[in-house]
Amino acid sequence: MSLDQLVTWLMDEGVKDDVETLTRLAVRTELDHLAPETVETAPIDWHRLLFAGSILARSAFRQHQEAALRIATGAVTMADTQPVKDAGAVLLGKLTNFRAVDLANDRKLLETDLEGRLGFGLRMETQRRKLDHSVLIESSGHWLQVNDFQQRFWDSATLNNWLSASAPTASGKTFLVLQWLINHMRSAETRVSVYLAPTRALVSEIETNLAQLLGKAAEIEVSSLPLPEKYDAAQLGGKKLILVFTQERLHLLANVLGKDVHVDLLIVDEAHKIGDNQRGVILQDAIERLERSNDDLKVVFISPATQNPEELLADAPGVAKTDAVDSDAPTVIQNLIVAEQVPRKPKLWNLSIREGTASQSVGVLKLASSPSNATKKLAFIAAAVGERGGTLVYANRAGDAEDIADLIAQLVPAIDGTDKELIELADLARKGVHPNFALASLVLKGVAFHYGNMPSLIRQEVERLFKSGKIRFLVCTSTLIEGVNLSCRTIVVRGPRKGMGNPMEPHDFWNLAGRAGRWGNEFQGNIVCIDPDDTTAWPNGVPIRSRYPIKRESDAVLETGDGMADYLERRADTPLFELADVGRFEQVGAYLLSTYLRLGSIAQASFAKRHSPNTIAKIDEKLAALADKIEIGSGFSERHPGVSALGLQSLLEAFRAYEKDVENLIPAPVESQDSYDRFVTIMRRINEHLYPAFMPDSLIPLYVVIVVQWLKGFSLAAMIRANIDYHNRHGRKFVLPKLIRQTMEHVEQVARFKAPKYLSAYMDILHLYFREIDREDLIDTDLDIGTQLEFGVSTRTLLSLMEMGLSRMSAVSLYEKIARDNLTKEECMTWIRQRDDQFDTMDIPAIIVREIREKILAIDQGSPDTVSP
To answer: What is the distance between the alpha carbons of residues 865 and 228, in angstroms, rounded to a whole number?
Structure first.
């Protein structure tokens, strides 16, 4: 019998029933409020299972490796005798799962000196396996133990110019990539590296992790500010530089540097998001922009559980050495559990484990109350099944997250409400958002909610206290899908959506599920899916585990047949408001037009080889007709990805036709009395010529208020108070929690996304016009509007405070106490040091004071700057 035949027999017949029994028993130990079992289970034959596990571990198939991992972790966590636990640890070693062994030691599940208890042969085998799966950190001389995927990544990243690596969520990708990045920066000639993350939340997390790993390293600086000063210093032989950016921030820096931008290494995290509807094209453009500026650019893509990671290498230069490192091996057990109500008994819910199309019963869950709607189902089941803590609940909207958290807080046992850290977080929520912000009262009960529009400092503190166990229940929205490395024991979800009611795609679902049982933190995690047969909640059913293909958004649009060509034909003469599906086609159309202007034909672009020559020729013809109407040149469209060159040209012609004083075209300083009226006019001009970004027109006054307050450096709490006053003055009714959320959303979606994108383009074309009419005296060379809006600053002092590494919330709190608006970073640090003993009397939240002191201490000790925008 061959190995393949043997492992197939073991899974189908040999130990199938034993593994199912072990799985059921292991899951029952993880869940709370299960009814007692009425049937006694036969004792587990550990020797038989462990022998089978050692054979299954040799298979390359995920199903077999997962069974071996279940056996190993079950032996370590559930067996009564030390020899069985030891054998489980040895089996974990065979699976190169050394972090699980470390976790077992940390939890004192294993007696000390495991290797000393092994026979000579096993000791030799264990040592050889550790040596084979270790990488050398050259700069320190230390060895780092890794699993098989990590070993292959490390070797390939060292040898190749372009690498695409894919492995399941929770396989230790980010941990190893950061270790490799630091080692590469120290041992290679690399001066500037860029780490691209899809969201500001992940930017902040990666930046913090890098700072912690670097410690007091003085030779490498970390920053998320797109400022040329740091870049220039690194290129001139100063500190090496790691820039942690979103794709938009990378474009901001590249716009400032122009053709001088030169990056040695690019790491793209969550690289599968190159297929996202809106921002995928901006990401693709950012990668190509850096590649054009450096023929020797080294690129590393990281993506979770994708089917075709090699697709991201398709546009690599012909001379580049490329490789794809792909793994589907499990590192932690993740149990997919479905919850279905017992007929006629709304307080009782059957729980079953699903593996593929098979399922087995785990038991009956008892709820405290009968859930009368979907929100209560999520809250009641989460409160019951995850009472011991470490429980995440997925909510589709921010408002739902707040409601679910409130319901859970009413059901779970009370905790000691005098914990200092929870009290400080409640104080920060009241002072940083609003005295009645719901989070403040909830955290004192060990419950919290978390969504992307919340201030980063509050969000980070919520995450920290959840990881520490002080917050037991955390209700989250889709921020968790974007790569934030927040682990838990149990996730509870029902009918997950992403965006405006869109059912969550399977790859996003499993990316979310990957937070359950994070490797090194837990042996297993549980994903509880409620009402699996409800087609309203789950239109396509609960997603089965599989790997999903990467496809660039630009390729997906080009494959729509004549859709792109038809759109381009209509684009020149049809008002933007009348174009159907304008968003998706406009983004890709802008990218194609920019490519055409740069190359003279998209047939010369690397993506052309992936599409029908007829399709490329037809689109080329339409682009040529548009290009004839454009005189601004390819450089301007390159600087503003996602903004059509046709719109830029239209805006230039509007400036040329303007008959009043051209100074009226310039935004007034936000401190000026006419700033509001100027921005209203500019937003309407953008809607007419560039893109209808600020719609509906009736909301433009509100959008302008948000933008002006944001640029003035208003705190979020001040903006919310102003919004409340506005509603009260105009006799408008409002619901406070909803108004708070709407203000946060307007800050993120308008002030920090749409406004920087389109106002930057507006100012660029306006400067072109001023040069054209010999009015360069009107061009302001200070900080560009895009960077001001990205960070919510209009003064040098505020930017300097953030350059120190402070979150905007902390920077604004300090700025309110500082008289001068033009302080440098060094002057800000001097101001802080001189008043350090006064902070406790300034009515500044303790968490902000702590952040300020930590950043000053880090700078004094030579640690790299970090920014938490």
So the answer is: 15
First to last CA, the chain: 60
The residue to which tokens 């038989």 are assigned: 48
Task: Look at residues 496, 530, 473 and name the one whose alpha carbon lies nearest to residue 350.
Answer: 530
Round to whole Å and give the CA distance between 543 and 530: 13
- Rounded distance, CA 248 to CA 757, Å? 8
Residue 679 in tokens: 């921005």
- From residue 736, alpha-carbon distances to 167, 474, 665, 769 in Å are 43, 22, 37, 45
Structure tokens at 523: 């042996």
Residue type, 389: G
Chain centre distance of CA 332: 21
> Does the bond joining 198 to the residue before it have cis omega, within 30 degrees of 0?
no
> Can you read off the two tokens belonging to residue 398?
């921010």
| Residue 224 and residue 218 in contact, taking contact as beta carbons nearer than 8 Å | no
- Tokens linked to 727: 């509603």
Q: How far is Cα 825 from Cα 812, in angstroms, rounded to an integer?
A: 15
Tell me the per-residue pLDDT of 629-682, one tens digit each, with 9 for 90 and over.
Answer: 999 988 999 999 999 999 999 999 999 999 999 999 999 999 899 999 999 999
Q: What is the pLDDT of residues 71-110, one digit of tens each?
A: 999 999 999 999 999 999 999 999 999 999 999 999 999 9
Residue 411: which region, alpha, beta or left (left: phi > 0; alpha: psi -120 to 50)?
alpha
Strand order in the sheet with 358-366: 358-366, 345-355, 333-342, 524-530, 490-493, 391-394, 473-476, 447-450
Q: Where are the alpha helices (DSSP H) in 120-227?
A: 120-132, 148-159, 173-187, 200-214
- Are residues 361 and 28 in contact, defined by beta-carbon separation less than 8 angstroms? no
- CA distance linking residue 609 with residue 539, whole number of Å: 36
Output the six-digit token pair for 31.
């869940």
Measuring CA to CA, how many Å separate 852 from each of 28, 715, 824, 855, 866?
Answer: 45, 17, 16, 5, 12
